[in-house]
Amino acid sequence: MEKIIVRGGRRLEGSVKVEGAKNAVLPVIAASILAKEGISIINDVPTLADVYTIKEVLENLNCGITFENNQIIVDATDALKTEAPFESVRKMRASFLIMGPLLARRGHARIALPGGCAIGSRPIDQHLKGFEAMGAKVQIGNGFIEAFVDGKLKAAKIYLDFPSVGATENIMMAATLAEGTTIIENVAKEPEIVCLANYLNAMGAKVRGAGTGTIRIEGVKELIGATHTVICDRIEAGTFMAAAAITGGDVFIEGAVSEHLRPLIAKMEEMGVTIIEKENGIRVIGPEELKPVDIKTMPHPGFPTDMQSQMMALLLKAKGTSVVTETVFENRFMHVEEFRRMNGNIKIEGRSAIVKGCCNLQGAEVAATDLRAGAALIIAGLVAEGCTRVVELHHIDRGYVNLTEKLASLGANIERVIEEPVPVKEKEAIPQSKPAILKVNPNFA
Ligand SMILES: CC(=O)N[C@H]1[C@@H](OP(=O)(O)OP(=O)(O)OC[C@H]2O[C@@H](n3ccc(=O)[nH]c3=O)[C@H](O)[C@@H]2O)O[C@H](CO)[C@@H](O)[C@@H]1O
Ligand SMILES: C=C(OP(=O)(O)O)C(=O)O
User: What's the chief localization of this chain (predicted)?
Assistant: First the structure.
């Protein structure tokens, strides 16, 4: 079984470079199928499992797509198929983002229902409400969602019940080729929405207001392929900020964009972390003692849910009690049980977690319950006594490129290995601190 093994106690120092953002590149790749003419060149694409998944989804739709040297080239000019099977949607919910572009370009899409996942049930009602308002007929059956439109989608005024990132993106993409001007209100304002709007506009779309609460999209006749560079990953940047801070380290995070990280910077400063904002990144200097803070996750520009678990790791080392409230996903506290294995003192009360800091974290065998939880357990492992072994690494590979290597380059004692299960009898003879490491995974060596 593959594991990441962290031995706590090292201070992180040095410089680390952030990749292109997963949550920006996935909708951009989905949007590339809107181009009936010309190719799209997408730069700074991270080599993540999710990127390979969406590449496969596009290949199955009959797109030409190559991925080399962090660049994706998409040729969607041939006739597109309009069906995405369960396999691709099951692996990654963001596959559903092809629904809007397919409806706009082909007037039909049949996509397997995404289903729930570890962090919550994650319905798609707001996406569908938008498509229906634009004239699509939607039906659900046999595990699929099928949507049709007679002729072209028609512009509509749509008010989202919640500023859903995915619904904003899907409806925005669908509206680019609709007849008339669509207005979407109460939309998500995340930097990834702005990144997608910029790409759509480079393709010839007329999208205005991305980054504010209302987006207006004047439909155009057709879109052509364009070149686009995706923004830096603010969540990967935030993960390194937390890792630097918890070890009392001094790390420069190259590529981190301060404007995208305001809520995190504010909370870290409240905790006593020194943040120096530079043009090409952020320097983070951890204090000797972290102060407790309360956190409530909210849509952007509120505190990001995707940083909640990494921040909880940090709060476990703060001197005092903090309250973390999760308002975006109903079930995003799965990591609490894993922190408890590491001697974390956390109590859940409804949507809040009461974190009693300054506990003596201890290394343990723990499981990544989602990609950010995996990163959070590694962060806790950096300061835990002894050895932390993190399993279920496929989650981490969805969202982080070479996380182990990057942390090791900053001085962490961390490695990714394949360990074979030790038979029960032998297990008794092997001391816990010496794992039976058979080989280091060559892909991550
Ligand atoms: C690939 C990607 O970009 N993923 C991000 C995106 O996910 P995603 O786009 O799935 O997240 P949403 O913003 O849509 O979801 C936020 C909340 O709205 C609810 N909801 C959403 C759609 C809908 O039709 N109905 C509904 O009730 C969800 O269940 C959830 O409780 O934004 C999340 C919130 O910042 C991040 O955690 C994810 O990392
Ligand atoms: C929840 C996340 O991603 P996704 O929406 O792709 O599951 C995340 O990036 O933390």
Answer: cytoplasm
Question: Which one of the ligands is nearest to 186 CA?
Answer: 1
The tens digit of pLDDT for each residue in 363-403 reads 999 999 999 999 999 999 999 999 999 999 999 999 999 99
Residue 195 among the catalytic residues: no
Please state, in angstroms and rounded to a whole number, the distance separating the CA atoms of residues 390 and 367.
5
* Cβ 382 vs Cβ 8: under 8 Å: yes
Q: 176: which 2 tokens?
A: 């680019």
Q: Determine if residue 23 is labeled as part of a ligand binding site.
A: yes
- CA dist 232 and 280 (Å) reads 11
CA of 164 to the centre of ligand 1 (A): 5
Other beta carbons less than 10 A from residue 276's beta carbon? 12
pLDDT by residue (tens digit) across 93-115? Answer: 899 999 999 999 999 999 998 86
SS3 readout for 134-163: CCCEEEEECCEEEEECCCCCECCEEECCCC
The two three-digit tokens of residue 60, written as one number: 């199955």
**Dist. CA 365–CA 438, nearest whole Å:** 17
Distance CA 126, CA 122 (A): 11
Kindly tell me if the per-residue pLDDT of 442 is higher than 50.
no
Which residue blocks in 85-190 are alpha helix, DSSP H?
86-91, 99-106, 125-133, 165-175
Burial of 185 (0-12, 13-18, 19+ CB in 10 A): middle
Ligand 1-lining residues (CB < 6 angstroms): 23, 26, 93-94, 120, 122-127, 162, 164-167, 188, 305-306, 328-329
- Other Cβ atoms less than 10 A from the Cβ of 162: the count is 12
Question: Measuring CA to CA, how many Å separate 229 from each of 21, 37, 192, 271?
Answer: 10, 20, 12, 34
> Which mutation among 50, 306, 400 tests ligand 2's pocket best, with the greatest number of atoms within 8 A of CB?
306
Ligand 2 binding pocket (C-beta < 6 A) is 23, 93-94, 119, 306, 371-372, 399
Closest CA relative to residue 304, chosen from 337, 252, 348, 268: 268
ipTM comes to 0.99
30 close to 67: Cβ distance less than 8 angstroms:
no
CA of 93 to the centre of ligand 2 (A): 8
Is 294 annotated as belonging to a binding site? no
What phi and psi, each to the nearest 5 degrees, are found at residue 32?
-60, -20
Distance CA 53, CA 106 (A): 22
Domains of the chain: 2-19+232-444 (3.65.10.10), 22-229 (3.65.10.10)
